[in-house]
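FAQ

Q: What does a record look like?
A: Structure on top, sequence underneath. For example:
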């Protein structure tokens, strides 16, 4: 699996780094306010559904589904208390989501991990529901909610022409035994 990491910063610039052939990608946190990290599977153009994260000192290690060892290391992710950068991705519905812990425990939220702790995370629900969990450990994270909304709107507009001729009607989405949403 070939993964890209898009590093979005406050000044709306984006830097893209790539993990190739299961090699480890080491990224130095840019130490800019309002930075987020977006994971993209190059084959699908979407985020991996699940990741395993581990705090190792001040660094965050990310292992993408299908890999046995960490693919991505963000150096000094835990360096500046209270300014943790969300790890995000675009889901099949075209919306940007944050990764949230499968356990549902606040202690397993990526910014709250203690040294040496592993956490399995999945792309979360809507951003508003994720807000409460992130607010508990990262009170100033809401800045990127606005950016996520803008990005989602841009992606929706850009992808609007590929509806397969269904006249603009909504499509059903199967969620492996989950509910079907007829938007």
């Amino acid at each position: 699996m070939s993964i890209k990491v898009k590093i979005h910063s406050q000044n709306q610039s984006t830097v893209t780094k790539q993990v190739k052939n299961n090699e480890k990608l080491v990224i130095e946190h840019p130490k800019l306010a309002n930075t987020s990290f977006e994971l993209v599977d190059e084959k699908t153009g979407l985020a991996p559904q699940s990741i395993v994260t581990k705090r190792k000192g001040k660094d965050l290690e990310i292992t993408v589904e299908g890999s046995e060892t960490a693919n991505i290391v963000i150096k000094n992710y835990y360096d500046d208390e209270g300014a943790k950068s969300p790890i995000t991705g675009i889901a099949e519905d075209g919306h940007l989501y944050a990764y949230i812990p499968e356990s549902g425990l606040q202690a397993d939220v990526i910014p709250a991990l203690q040294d040496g702790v592993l956490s399995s995370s999945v792309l979360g629900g809507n951003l508003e529901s994720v807000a409460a969990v992130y607010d508990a450990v990262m009170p100033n994270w809401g800045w990127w909610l606005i950016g996520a909304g803008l990005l989602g709107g841009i992606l929706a507009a850009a992808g609007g022409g590929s509806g397969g001729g269904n006249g603009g009607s909504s499509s059903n989405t199967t969620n492996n035994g989950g509910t079907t949403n007829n938007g």
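Q: Is there anything notable about this one?
A: Residues 3-157 form one domain.
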